[in-house]
TrEMBL record:
Residues 2-79 form the Threonine synthase N-terminal domain. GO terms for molecular function: threonine synthase activity. Its cofactor is pyridoxal 5'-phosphate. Pfam families: PALP (PF00291), Thr_synth_N (PF14821). PANTHER family: THREONINE SYNTHASE FAMILY MEMBER, THREONINE SYNTHASE-LIKE 2. This is Threonine synthase. Its EC number is 4.2.3.1. It is an enzyme of class 4 (lyase). It comes from Mesonia aestuariivivens. The gene is thrC.
Amino acid sequence: MNYFSLNHKAANVNFEQATINGIAPDKGLYFPEKLIPLEQSFFENIEKMSNTQIAYEVIRQFIATSIPEQELSNIIEETLNFEFPLVKIEEDTYALELFHGPTMAFKDVGARFMARCLRYFNRSKKDEKIKVLVATSGDTGGAVANGFLRVKGVEVIILYPSGKVSTIQEKQLTTLGQNIIALEVDGTFDDCQAMVKQAFLDEDLKELNLTSANSINIARWLPQMFYFFFAYRDLKHLNKNMVFSVPSGNFGNICAGMLAKKLGLPIEFFIASTNINDTVALFLKSGAYQAKPSTATISNAMDVGDPSNFVRIQQLYNNEIETLKKDFSSYSFTDEETKNAMKKIYSTANYISDPHGAVGYLGWQKTKEKFPNSIGVFLETAHPVKFLDTVEETLQTKIEIPQQIKAVIDKKKRSLNIKNYKELKAFLTLG
Ligand SMILES: Cc1ncc(COP(=O)(O)O)c(C=O)c1O
Ligand SMILES: N[C@@H](CCOP(=O)(O)O)C(=O)O
């Protein structure tokens, strides 16, 4: 399988090269050249398959010969060594918990998979180093730090917006040291992401072997398909159509679900549920895509004003907005609505949702009238403890701190402050 650039001005490359490049030389995101639907027998027998068997079948066409079969199986086994439970919230509503990995956010899947692919690609390199540049609005940074810690030949540089991530998220991305460096940016997530993209295109930095560990990188993005299949397997016995509501920021997660649908996964509809950063919802109304500066909210990991992966979603639908709307819509919610949803879920189902999951719940609530015979699955993308102050204050309850968080909470933060691209470039060239 090869990948082409969505800007159509760069050479097609295989999985290994696309992973190492991160983004194509013409600034475009890589996209698979063809999508081969999975066999009918796969869906007929899916209840009998384990997570790792499903993941292997789903991803193998995308890896092709870049990684040998046994090695790919090992990568998947190591990546998916935690649970993906579904919790019934209401008769027609389920939460798919994606936070049982080491950093308690869905990013663990993509970050662990990508780190292991790079480890394989670096296996025979001696002194050569790859620098992984990553922008985070909260969770990617921690997951990438954890997933890439001590990976041979890789140095990770994380850019995060100062004062705009939660205390626990900040600890997760600034305290590991070793091959992980955190840069605290005086700006928003979009500023961080723009700087990362600029660095990839900077001729002066060509020698540095830069790549990205955001979902713009196919090795981070593609494994995010896995858990849509797991949820289907676990709910198939209900014999109902399924609608997914995905709390969305950079739109990588929902785009992976939509790719899964193109492979044959029978999902009826997708809802991109956002906070007030509503660039995509506005696009669906007006037909004109207008990126805007992001606004800070209590679901901070979704504070994205120019979602990178929306171009991939458009590509999946041949840039035909009316066709896209048959499978997809987007709704935005305020912090007040989010807090009320958290309270409702807590009082009616005794379930503590984090602000992102609550936005997902709201998206399904808003849409469910149109799907009276279906079940809605909203993704619980992070553990509520990651947003401790907001959750405890909103629900007036105490959350037990899990072991993964205890391990970082008292560690000392280490970060360097930067203000602009010039300072990033100076750091990369001198540091
Ligand atoms: C907890 C949480 N929920 C939702 C999102 C949004 O996911 P995506 O950027 O793939 O749309 C993120 C960050 O990406 C996140 O960390
Ligand atoms: N919400 C993200 C922002 C980056 O998203 P990514 O999936 O493209 O890495 C975060 O938590 O950092």
